[in-house]
Amino acid sequence: MSRQALDSFVAEELHRVVRLVEELPVERIEAVGEILVDAYRHDGHVFVAGNGGSAATASHFACDLATNTVPRGRRRLRVTSLNDNVPLLTAAANDRGYERVFADQLTDLIRPEDVLVAISGSGRSPNVVEAIRTARQRSAAAVALLGCDGGDAAEQADAFILVPSDDYGQVEDVHTILHHLLTAYVKRRLAGEE
Q1: Contacts of 148 by beta carbon, 8 Å cutoff, 6+ apart
Q2: 182 — phi, psi (to 5°)?
Q3: Closest of 177, 133, 174, 173 to residue 153, by C-alpha
Q4: How far apart are CA 8 and CA 5, in angstroms?
Q5: Spacing of C-alpha 185 from chain mean position
Q6: Where do the domains of the chain lie, and which CATH numbers do they carry?
């Protein structure tokens, strides 16, 4: 591939991601942000989960929510990434099946004041959909960052933000932007309540 063709490819890829960001529904982002703010107000716990690249995003989002949202001197938002305990994940997958790796953790942990943030490029991952069902069965809020057409996760979640692309790289790029934006949103809202 020529240098000119590579430059054109890079410009086109950047343009696609920018266009996806520009098309994001602001009201849905704010709605998810408010659900996270409410979790803090009610001393809730935020659980985050995803597979593959979305697992990395879930871990990053959990870190940012726990460390970057609350002004000094105030209690932190309690946040756990459900995909970070590898021994627990492999035990659950071995004993109960991979579709239960997140739901089994939530069964004993999640409460009505808590929130599950599910991240899925397709919205069809059985373990993510099962986690959403489990959160809802326990009267907790379930929100999702999704791609493609949202799949079953969009039908199950209380609120979701959809990146309308079948390109998983682009979806994951925008999910990272969204998690940074949601972290900043929560920080701004909580700072305003200080």
Answers
A1: 121, 122, 123, 124, 164, 165, 166, 171
A2: -65, -40
A3: 133
A4: 5
A5: 14
A6: 26-192 (3.40.50.10490)
0.90 exceeded by pTM = yes
Which parts of 23-85 fold into alpha helices (H)?
A: 26-41, 53-67
Instruction: Report the chain's C-alpha Rg in angstroms.
Output: 17
- In our burial notation (b when 16+ CB lie closer than 10 A, e otherwise), range 86-112 reads eeebeebeeeeebbbbbbbbbeeebee
Amino acid at 119: I
pLDDT in tens, 97-111: 999 999 999 999 999
Angle, helix 3-22 to helix 168-192, in steps of 10 degrees = 40
Tens-digit pLDDT profile for residues 65-75: 999 998 788 89
